[in-house]
Design a protein that fits this description.
Length: 294
């Protein structure tokens, strides 16, 4: 029996009905979003979006999802003081302690930023699992997925085992946490609601897939914004950043069964764009050309 830290009493389920053509994509993208692991020679990264024809042309109406960018004119994310605690001490993993510390910093940083624009902030609920369980967010736990954001409960879900976090001292676990936190920001600002509305109206799998990638790549970019704001306090080196970019590239859709998070080069592009600009306004994937969200 798995050792469960915080088991939801009643797993959340989808709150809306969708046309049949959109149901599969929305079940993963709008209810519970998973971050795929970097690819390794022994296995391909997993993801939970709908299947699509990789050669299908992008529908240019996908960039109409968010008509008014809620991050526009909010300025840069203020420099954050976020010294990292050790991930491993004396050979003992401190994963939960590490994530809790960095999530506290994410809360502080983003709450102040949203307050400047007059938006109400609510911290996400956080749940930790010692190992994957049969069901999360009302769906089967996706194989080889790193972390989740359950939209109905505004809950971040982190397994404390798996390649994404075990025996690591690099930046990838923090990037995953910041990415999932980006989905919480999308919920707080209304971006997710607009995305779901556009997803309902999508009449092709190609358009559904493109919308999902715009949504995921924005979360990558928002993760980069936070990393840029916190970088000066984390005692990291240029090599640490280069390693993270390589790992992000290896988590691209080239190594997955479905197109959901974007090609590795595009994941790197949006992570770097957020990091360098340190402004969430730089993360407007919705008006980006199709090539940048492929």
């Amino acid at each position: 029996m798995p050792l469960l830290r915080f088991r939801p009493a009643s797993p959340p389920r989808a709150r809306f009905a969708l046309p049949a053509v959109a149901a599969t994509a929305a079940a993963a993208a709008a209810v519970c979003v998973a971050t795929a692991l970097p690819a390794a020679p022994a296995h391909a990264a997993a993801n939970t979006s709908a299947n699509t024809n990789a050669n299908a042309p992008a529908n240019t109406t996908a960039n109409a999802t968010v008509r008014a960018d809620p991050f526009a004119r909010t300025g840069k994310l203020a420099a954050a003081t976020c010294p990292e605690p050790p991930m491993i001490t004396g050979g003992v993993p401190r994963t939960e302690s590490y994530l809790r510390t960095m999530l506290k910093c994410l809360n502080t940083s983003w709450s102040r930023h949203l307050a400047k624009s007059g938006r109400t902030f609510r911290a996400p609920v956080v749940e930790f699992y010692d190992e994957p369980v049969r069901e999360v967010c009302g769906l089967p736990w996706p194989a080889q997925a790193a972390a989740f954001y359950c939209t109905d409960r505004r809950t971040l879900v982190f397994p404390l085992t798996g390649d994404w976090v075990e025996n690591r001292t690099d930046l990838y676990p923090l990037k995953v946490a910041a990415h999932e936190y980006g989905h919480h920001l999308q919920s707080l600002t209304g971006i997710r609601r607009a995305f779901e509305s556009r997803l309902r109206a999508a009449r092709s799998r190609a358009l559904q897939s493109e919308l999902g990638r715009r949504y995921e790549l924005q979360a990558d970019c928002l993760a980069g914004v936070f990393l840029g704001a916190a970088w000066g306090s984390m005692s990291r080196t240029g090599q640490d950043w280069t390693t993270l970019l390589d790992e992000t590239k290896d988590s691209g859709d080239e190594y997955a069964a479905y197109r959901s998070h974007g090609k590795g080069a595009n994941r790197v592009h949006w992570l770097k764009r957020g990091y360098q600009g340190r402004s969430p306004a730089a993360c407007d994937t919705w008006s980006a050309p199709a090539a940048k969200v492929a």
